[in-house]
Specification:
The protein is mainly beta and 175 residues long. It is built from 2 helices and 11 strands; from the N terminus they run αβαββββββββββ. The strands form 2 sheets. Strands 5, 6, 7, 9, 10 and 11 form a 6-stranded antiparallel sheet that branches. A 5-stranded antiparallel sheet has the order 1-8-4-3-2, covered by helices on one side. A hairpin with an 8-residue loop joins strand 2 and strand 3. The termini are far apart.
């Protein structure tokens, strides 16, 4: 039995197959360097929105509504210090059982279409419960020269069983 297993293992290695990705196809496996994504503190989120007041490379979208639905929806993207910084804020006219953003996508413009670069898979959701405001953000390290970026997201609030939503897309920044 030992000889059979040894022979089978030698045969697989001779064919260049290995279950170990380090040895697959005869060359060393090097994982792709991933972008570092870090959550922004509340102070950093406020700073992104403050920077957005006079900086032309910053895009902020606001939406105002009357009544008990969404009152403010802000979405911003800035660049600097080797990072793209994304901040968002959703405010409701009352206490929401759930409030926040979903389906957020950080995109870059490549060959006449927008390509989502974060999140690479799945969806980005950030929400809070039993409050009237939700704000947050993240920064992602980027080492790209003069690319166009934008952020899209859906702001939402669930108030008394009714869901209110607003889709937002920032203007384009070049970083």
């Amino acid at each position: 039995m030992k000889r059979v297993l040894t022979g089978l293992l030698c045969l697989l290695l001779a064919l260049g197959y290995s279950a170990d990705p380090v040895l697959a196809k005869g060359k060393a496996y090097r994982p792709q360097k991933r972008e570092q994504v870090r959550a922004l503190s509340q102070k950093e989120v406020d700073q992104v929105f403050r920077e957005s007041a006079g900086d032309v490379s910053v895009a902020v979208m606001r939406s105002f509504s009357l009544g008990n639905g969404l009152t403010t929806c802000k979405l911003a993207i800035t660049s600097g210090g080797g990072y793209l910084k994304v901040a968002f804020q959703t405010t409701a006219g009352g206490t929401a059982s759930r409030i926040g953003i979903r389906d957020l996508k950080l995109q870059t413009y490549e060959r006449s279409f927008w390509k989502t670069i974060y999140p690479a898979k799945g969806t980005y959701i950030y929400s809070k419960s039993k409050t009237g405001i939700c704000k947050g953000g993240f920064k992602i390290s980027k080492k790209a020269a003069k690319k166009k970026y934008r952020v899209t997201a859906k702001h939402f609030a669930v108030i008394k069983g009714k869901t209110y939503t607003k889709n937002k897309t920032t203007s384009v920044i070049v970083y």
